[in-house]
């Protein structure tokens, strides 16, 4: 069956059986989106028990099932952030049912896989229970089960999170006592015991993993040259280096040698500001070489939107927060531009029939999204059409305001050409129902409608939710709808009782993954 399939002339079919949004659907939404409703809020969202009422009901009904689903979603990486899973696990760890509490604490290593995860769990769990014997044993067991070298790195790299430090947690958990109390035949190693002692009280580094010695020495470094030498000798991460030494190009040059791709992209502005990156410097040559290394980009799984956000921020020469400025290096700008297109290969297609609908009203060219200087809603929506054109099979693109026109966007076009294509169209008020009304009228087969707009409003007589329901009835396709309000405040276009509708409020580098997983029916 080819796409687009014409449905006109065929008898309407009855869509597949709908599954109501019960508490278990709301649980999965919370684990993936951080909210129980049909909305994903780009950026940080506050997690509270009041916002997780359906989660609490699921825990009361079947705590073991909640824990199992939490661990499965967390381990599969289906959520852009792990914090909601840690929050739900903390809720379960504080449940009235003893079996649920035990299941939650047993699942701690599966959900809290890094030091920063554990600290976040500790900050959440204190809101639901005290540090009783079971919690001390579970957290102590987490520390004792870590490889000593990896634990030392975690303790140095992620020292605090959510207002809690490893020192605080170890004082509460007492790993050596907790592990031996749970299993008298088991005891933590001498190296672990000494590492715990050092984290809590400091002191001698004899017998500890080598990185601890490097951390202690770099904290006492007299100058940048000594610090750079220690970074290379001990392969220290940036977090181990005192902040006063992070103004030195020599220190950043040493860090750059082992810096992962995502960290390198994130720190381009800082490395330029301190002087490591400049015209024809060795640092610039190394950065440009890595950004143009397709295999390196592939291994790092960098999404094109993350590269575009970095490009626009770097080009702007100023930070979103603070007063930092820098002079962009042309070679780095060009390499980031190349990396944006090269990263298309990192995107996994959804495999469905997709219609991307772009709001072409004039306001899409104003303002900035997600705090990214220079990245307008029009830029971001155009970039998403390019990613879709490069990865999906026969996608459809339309531009809309209070009317709708098909857009001729093909794989291989440059971003500036796509922006130009959608900038010269006549525009009016915003009617987000237009894509579904158009597909119904033309008899087009669409599995997922994705609407990009800077506004949550519509100007027509039919709401987007109602237009989707009409399309489903006419086509027999259980289609889904995502409405991305790129600069909007909290809003609801989607029907919160319909599992096939999703609002995305704002736009950041996590947004594409959420949309793709929703289109794949993964949530």
What are the salient characteristics of this protein?
3 domains, 25 helices, 7% strand, alpha/beta, Rossmann fold, 523 residues, 9 strands, disordered N terminus, 7-stranded mixed sheet, two-stranded antiparallel sheet
What proportion of the residues form beta strands (DSSP E)? 5-15%
- What structural category characterises the helix and strand content? alpha/beta
Largest sheet: 7 strands, mixed
Query: Gap between N and C termini, in Å?
Result: 26 Å
CA-atom Rg in angstroms: 26 Å
Molecular shape: flat
Number of strands: 9
> How confident is the prediction overall: mean pLDDT?
87
Low-confidence stretches: 1-19
Q: Helicity range of the residues?
A: 40-55%
In order across it, which strands form the biggest sheet? 1-9-8-7-4-5-6
Number of domains in the coordinates?
A: 3
Q: How large is the count of helical segments?
A: 25
Can you describe this structure in just a few lines?
The chain is an alpha/beta fold and 523 residues long. It is 50% helix and 7% strand.
Report on the structure:
The chain starts with 22 loop residues before the first helix and ends with a helix. The protein has 25 helices and 9 strands. Helix 2 packs parallel to helix 4, helix 9 crosses helix 11 and helix 17 packs parallel to helix 20. The longest helix has 24 residues. It folds into 3 domains: 181 residues, no CATH class; 133 residues, no CATH class; 172 residues, Rossmann fold (3-Layer(aba) Sandwich), CATH 3.40.50. Strands 1-9-8-7-4-5-6 form a 7-stranded mixed beta sheet, with helices on both faces. Strands 2-3 form a two-stranded antiparallel sheet. It is an alpha/beta fold and 523 residues long.
């Amino acid at each position: 069956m080819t796409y687009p399939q014409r449905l006109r002339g065929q008898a309407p079919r009855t869509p597949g059986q709908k599954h109501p949004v019960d508490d278990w659907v709301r649980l999965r939404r919370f684990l993936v989106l951080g909210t129980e409703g049909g909305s994903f809020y780009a950026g940080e969202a506050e997690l509270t028990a009041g916002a997780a009422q359906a989660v609490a009901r699921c825990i009361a009904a079947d705590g073991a099932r909640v824990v199992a689903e939490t661990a499965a979603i967390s381990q599969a990486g289906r959520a852009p952030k792990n914090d909601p899973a840690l929050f739900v696990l903390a809720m379960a760890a504080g449940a009235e049912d003893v079996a649920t509490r035990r299941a939650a604490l047993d699942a701690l290593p599966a959900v809290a896989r890094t030091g920063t995860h554990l600290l976040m769990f500790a900050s959440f769990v204190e809101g639901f229970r005290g540090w009783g014997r079971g919690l001390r044993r579970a957290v102590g067991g987490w520390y004792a089960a870590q490889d000593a070298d990896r634990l030392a790195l975690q303790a140095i790299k992620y020292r605090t999170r959510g207002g809690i430090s490893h020192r605080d947690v170890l004082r509460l958990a007492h790993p050596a006592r907790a592990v031996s109390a749970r299993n008298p035949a088991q005891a933590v190693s001498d190296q672990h015991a000494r590492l715990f002692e050092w984290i809590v009280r400091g002191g001698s580094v004899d017998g500890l993993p080598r990185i601890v010695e490097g951390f202690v020495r770099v904290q006492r470094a007299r100058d940048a040259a000594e610090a750079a030498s220690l970074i290379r000798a001990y392969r220290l991460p940036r977090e181990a280096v005192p902040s006063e030494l992070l103004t030195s190009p020599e220190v950043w040059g040493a860090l750059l040698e082992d810096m992962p791709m995502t960290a390198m992209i994130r720190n381009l502005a800082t490395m330029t500001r301190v002087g490591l990156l400049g015209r024809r410097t060795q640092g610039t040559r190394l950065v440009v070489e890595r950004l143009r290394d397709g295999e390196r980009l592939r291994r790092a799984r960098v999404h094109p939107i993350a590269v575009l956000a970095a490009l626009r921020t770097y080009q702007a020469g100023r930070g979103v927060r603070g007063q930092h400025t820098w002079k962009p290096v042309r070679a780095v700008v060009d390499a980031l531009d190349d990396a944006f297109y090269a990263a298309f290969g990192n995107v996994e297609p959804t495999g469905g029939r997709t219609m991307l609908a772009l709001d072409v009203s004039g306001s899409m060219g104003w303002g900035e999204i997600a705090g990214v200087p220079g990245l307008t809603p029009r830029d971001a929506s155009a970039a998403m059409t390019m990613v879709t054109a490069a990865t999906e099979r026969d996608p459809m693109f339309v531009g809309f305001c209070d009317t709708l026109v098909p857009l001729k966007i093909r794989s291989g076009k440059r971003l500036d050409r796509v922006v130009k294509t959608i900038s010269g169209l006549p525009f009016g008020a915003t009617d987000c129902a237009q894509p579904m009304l158009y597909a119904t009228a033309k008899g087009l087969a669409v599995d997922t409608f994705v609407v990009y707009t800077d506004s949550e409003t519509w100007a027509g007589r039919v709401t987007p939710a109602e237009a989707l329901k009409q399309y489903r009835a006419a086509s027999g396709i259980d289609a889904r709808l995502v409405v991305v309000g790129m600069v909007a405040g909290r809003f609801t276009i989607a029907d919160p009782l319909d599992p096939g509708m999703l609002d995305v409020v704002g736009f950041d580098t996590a947004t594409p993954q959420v949309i793709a997983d929703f289109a794949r029916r993964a949530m």
